[in-house]
Amino acid sequence: MHNAYEVIPGTIYNIIQESPLIRTLQIRPEIPIEFQTGQFVELSLPGIGEGPFTPSSSHYTSEVMDITIMKTGFVTEYIHKTSIGDIVGIRGPYGSKYPLEKFHNKDILILGGGCGLAPLRSLFLTLLHDIDQYNSITFLAGAKSPKDCIYKELFSEWKKYKKVNIYRSVDIVPEGESWDEEICLVTKLLQKIKIDPKENPVIVCGPPVMMKFGTMDLLKYGYNENNIYLSMEKKMYCGFGQCRHCVIGGYYACKDGPVFTYAQIKNEEAIWE
Amino acid sequence: MLIKISDFHSFLYNLNESNNIEVVIPSLANGTENRFFFNKLNSSNNFDLGFFRTIDPSKVLFYQPRESVFPVSTGTIKRIIAGIKSCDMKSIQLLDKALINNDFVDSAYKNLRDSTYIITTDCTEIHSSCHCTLLDGKPFTESGFDLNLSPVEDYYLITIESDKGRELFELIKKKYGLLDAHESAYLEISKQRNKIIEKLVIQNEKFLPRNNDVLRSKDLSIWNEESKECIGCGACTNICPTCYCLILNDESVEKEFIKVRSYDSCQLHGYAKVAGGASPRPKMYERFRNRYLCKFDYMKKNFGEPGCVGCGRCTEACAAKIDFREVIQNISMNTLTTKQSI
Ligand SMILES: Cc1cc2nc3c(=O)[nH]c(=O)nc-3n(C[C@H](O)[C@H](O)[C@H](O)COP(=O)(O)OP(=O)(O)OC[C@H]3O[C@@H](n4cnc5c(N)ncnc54)[C@H](O)[C@@H]3O)c2cc1C
Ligand code: SF4
Ligand code: SF4
């Protein structure tokens, strides 16, 4: 009988400091971990604690896994002190995935901000792998300020792909920093796109306020609530529907989510908090 | 089959003395007449398998307040727990659904479940907070147990429900003389059972049956009113036999992964707070309401049945003396009258 709390040890083989508060750990687990993009894992530091994080690498690689982590509290503070060679633990994957089969031959819109770009990076890399199957991918990415932008090199590289459109924005440009793309809230970038919203999917991930107002704007734009995919972040400990912390009405964010359509959860209470 | 009550007690004592079995019974708290706690059987405790539920919920025997879930201690010894009541049996069946399912298994819980024999007994008294009948429950078990005992005069009628129960029964049969139960014994038992049901019905006469739609009503001011006295301590969830919300911690040892789970409570402020401070239920009345919604709406969706078994422990444990039944009653009445006046 498999113990649901068992972790697979993994070695950090590289660290990318993306921004002052965000870093990407590149991990080689002792046993390859297969997952589907959109799903999440529990990452532990021995003797410290664990938390839910979404792999930011493509689901076509299982020997190594990238996890992008923002420093926000106790465990993540320690995660930001790790060095190459350190051992971490991974259990999972858990939860629902992005339904890629529904994206075939569609014009896909991806909308994300802050550390919410982590699962979207995984999605994007996975989509790129099979780019022939999709009509186009439009990625709208936001950050607070230029220095908070993550995946800097990756975005310049991704822009070179045919069928891929990328727009980026920052909320503000403080003195001494420079920025040659848009300066606005990321949801404002919707004005740039020319996608027919009727039948096409949009995937959203970011801080709660961004998710909320982003969803409202997408509905206004004409997107169907069944085609708006949200990655919900709720407090969770176990990851598989036993600790009950992530309950959203009759759903578990961990087991039935984290990927929900807006139609699924719109009538539940306090979904954005 | 019928066994003399004194014989059954000596059966328990004898098993307890063998090396690899532990017997747990409801033992009378010092200085009380009818307050029982689960305890290991020993020569000094005073026990009775009748009465009503214990003060402590049966979950503490399977889902301990703090235990390692990875790694899980092996070599769990066999246990017999006697005197579990119908409401607690139902709560164990609910925990089974939550913790041992097709997707994930809580190994620590499963070990304790697998190594335990459950002997349930009919309630012979009721506590002022008992209300199993409001939740389609009965003061005697109908499923889930291994053996059930129903008292008839100086005897227990034994009902076998499972293979484990049969195993125990074979042990009993080897050592003790058993009598065949005649129709009169069954009649007597059903008479006693009906008497207890009647007491429960009378005690809970003024309360409406549970209606989750009513509880889901969006009028929050009434919840604010109902929760005024609540101090948010979480006693109600800790004592509830079906509450199993957990916190998972890593034991602070170097270079090892040791996962420990302990009870959490949705009544506490930090319960659903995420990094950055956002919380879906920052106000006390929202958390107060969450417990009722969880029991009657969310758990019903998750498990096909409500998460309350009507044991009344939350009422008994409440520091502010809030009666669970009255809250539901007040909310229901309020919603019904508001609806009618629209
Ligand atoms: C499905 C999912 C995917 C996530 N993916 C990412 C990701 O890719 N990158 C990233 O940086 N962050 C992600 N998060 C958020 C991340 O889990 C929290 O930031 C992290 O757990 C905070 O831990 P802490 O100990 O540093 O914070 P503290 O505030 O000190 O946390 C205390 C406790 O609360 C729990 N907790 C606090 N905030 C959250 C939260 N938002 N979600 C769940 N548990 C929380 C922690 O596990 C910890 O046990 C994700 C959350 C979820 C639910
Ligand atoms: S609630 Fe019902 S089953 Fe539970 S102890 Fe009271 S009478 Fe017995
Ligand atoms: S909610 Fe109260 S009455 Fe219902 S099972 Fe829990 S403790 Fe017993």
Short description, anyone?
The complex is a heterodimer of chains A (273) and B (342). With 273 residues, chain A is α/β, with parallel strands linked by helices.
What would you say this structure looks like, in words?
The complex is a heterodimer of chains A (273) and B (342). With 273 residues, chain A is α/β, with parallel strands linked by helices. Chain A contains 5 helices and 15 strands. In chain A, helix 4 (208-221) links the parallel strand 11 (202-205) and strand 12. The mean pLDDT of chain A is 92. In chain B, the strands form 2 sheets. In chain B, strands 1-8-7-6-5-2-3 form a 7-stranded mixed β-sheet, sandwiched between helices. Chain B has a 3-stranded antiparallel β-sheet with strand order 4-10-9, covered by helices on one side. The model of chain B has no long low-confidence stretch (mean pLDDT 91). With 342 residues, chain B is an alpha/beta fold. In chain B, strand 9 (246-250) and strand 10 (259-263) form a beta hairpin. Chain B is built from 12 helices and 10 strands. At the A-B interface, loops of A face strand 9 and helix 10 of B. One iron/sulfur cluster (SF4) binds next to helix 3 of chain B.
